[in-house]
Amino acid sequence: MLSKKTYGITDTPELLGETLERVKAAQKVFSGFDQEKIDAIFKAVALAANHYRLPLAKLAVEETGMGILEDKVIKNHYATEYIYNKYKNVKTVGVIEEDTVFGTRKIAEPVGVIAGVIPTTNPTSTSIFKILISLKTRNGIILAPHPRAKKCVVETAKILLEAAVAAGAPENIIGWIDTPSIDLTQMIMKESDFILATGGPGMVKSAYSSGTPAVGVGSGNVPALIDSTANIKVAVNSIIHSKTFDNGMICASEQSVIVVADVYDEVKIEFEKRNSYILGKKEADKVRKIIVVDGHLNGKIVGQPAYKIAEMAGIEVPKTTKILIAEVESTDWEEEFSHEKLSPVLALYKGSDFDDALEKADAILNNNGLGHTSSIHIHLEKGAKNLRKFEERMKSGRIVINQPSSHGGIGDLYNFKLAPSLTLGCGTWGGNSVSENVGVGHLLNIKTVTERKENMLWFRVPPKIYFKRGSLPIALDELIEGEDAKKRIFIVTDNFLLENGNLSAITDKLMEMGIQYSIFSDVETDPTLATVKKGTELMRGFNPDCIVAFGGGSPMDVAKIMWLLYEHPEVDFFDMAMRFMDIRKRVYTFPKMGKKASFIAIPTTAGTGAEVTPFAVITDEKTDVKYPIADYELTPHMAIVDSDLMMHMPKSLTAASGIDVLSHAIESYVSTVATSYTQGLSVEALRLVFKYLPQSYKEGADNPKARQRMADASTIAGMAFGNAFLGICHSLAHKLGATFGIPHGIANALLIEEVIRYNSNDTEAKMGTFSQYTHPRASELYAKLSDYLGLGGNTNEEKVENLIKKIRELKNELEIKPGIKYYGVTEKDFMDKVDYMAENAFDDQCTGANPRYPLIEDLKDIYIKAFNGYPLQD
Description:
- By secondary structure, this protein is an alpha/beta fold.
- The chain has 30 helices and 25 strands.
- Strand 11 and strand 12 (296-297) form a beta hairpin.
């Protein structure tokens, strides 16, 4: 024996229990080692394994009677050198990854004690591999060898333990079972913290059913397809090199070769030239009988040279024979040659063409080889199309191209990104938990530490905003300036503006500049999807290079969606209407806009702010559902805010649109997404509303300053809520307006008081979710608005009530009725529909930014309170 020490024998459950306790105690100490100590031990053990690679290989061959000594030396060398080289600089202790910008750290912790189940085919190399990756990750390990390989596995464990201890590892960090049995193996699998199982399907199934977390990897039945574009000499010799390595015992070695017909004879000749023996029909029948015995692979042929397998079958072949090859047709499970053979025996299939060869390769893989490895030999350029077919079809964790499959599958020999490993995962296809090559990452618990961070915020508005009375004709001069001069303009408006001559302010200027234009004026108060589609067809027929939205919010909403469908006819409206939690992370991605036409928004009302926002609201006429559409691609390129266009707004429209500005200002101020960039705008807009809306309502065109200042307030509030978003007042108003035909601004007015009271209840609040919103503070923010307006009050509660009182006074000045019931809605009709409205309001896009996250019952309660409102004033 190679080990210098004498150890106790572990051959009973009681003694295995003692071994397990010793390894656990050692691992507890080992888990406290730093990276420097771990790396020193890792290196010392690798050096020891490398030093003993030849004697350990001898022990394996002598004990198992399988394989080739020289190849087992290479396996041991590979398990040492390649594994050490791959992981020598990998961090496995403490913080292994850190991102200071996003405030994340990943901390590696060991899993504990590993149960290393070792196969008889590769006993010493697999033991070296599992011990090395266990020690690198601060885990203890107990090896459970196959009974036919117990001596060489135990000797490997002893040598590596002594090297580890000499380098500073705890005394019992590696353990083993001296006299393995099914009961002892099952015991260690059950009592360990993690299982690394390599073996047949039964062993892997046992590992996964033990109740202990496991990485179990099973059998491979590798098909190798040779395409007509392949380099035949390289392909055949690669297969021979792989299949003869350690007499074919690596599970990634080829088991069947499928050759496209037009190179089949050339492949056969090359095999024969290289001392492979093509079996005759009778000879194949004789070999077939010894491949499978009692439904299982005959262990007597595993790892034996070709001539000995021939002797077992009663066939005489030269001792120099490398591989026995049988030409077969069936890929069914009943065909013994289609199985995994773990010996230098190959099935040879002919495919009439590539697709037929692919069918056969897939069938072979499905014979107990799913998930493991597939191989193909093909010209990368000439056969690119067929290679893609192969990659898509084959359900295997590794697809090796133009490589010896044994060497290619284990990694880092004929490819240099596939991790070197002697435990190859087969994924769910093969009943495994991993599909990659197993390494140190599979033996670590990773703690991800995350600091609270505020995500990047934004402030986005149109590139150009022109404002002040009389700005329209001057701003329109830009249309004919520079390289981007416009030639064809499509105007979207409504019939009222068209019939009353309001549009002449634009059309006269366009004619003066010699620009062609077309007008679409069928926009209704609550624009529908049908209207959008109708207008889009006309827009496509005109083929404009600029779109002008002229009017209130409805023409702008319609024009934005028409613009989108004009530039991107492939988009689906209902995909665009999909709700999102964070506009940057939405499932649906809006296409880039402005490639065919620029967009100009010209408001004729002081209310919606749509000229500067990325929003549009469209109603599906089939369901009467209003869909708020939001994306910054919908932001106009230019906004022209000329209050001359608003001078003659009717009083009712002045009130409705003006109170909408107020709701925009208040909701954007308390939104979870509000920032210092938006809140100043919200406050200024609110100040302007309270000061100038009553004047604008009462005096109209006789007070052009009030009209101008309300135009400013509308756009300023638009810039605020276009970046901070809104809240449940708008969610509720959208559904109320759609259900009962109440104008949008009035709907907001009817709801705003109850919404403020609801949001101000900080103690019962279910807080909105956004990283910068740290605690319920809506009452504090409403109180700040009250302070800014000079409304008085000593506590937040008093200030909030004063703000509500101020809003009510404004509504009374605007002659807005105090409750929903005063707008022609009966109590029965309302109660019949309130549940529907509340549920849909909850799902409205505006709900997500509300400072208090509502329950559907909460929204219903707000509706009911708003229905009655407060008593009418005399």
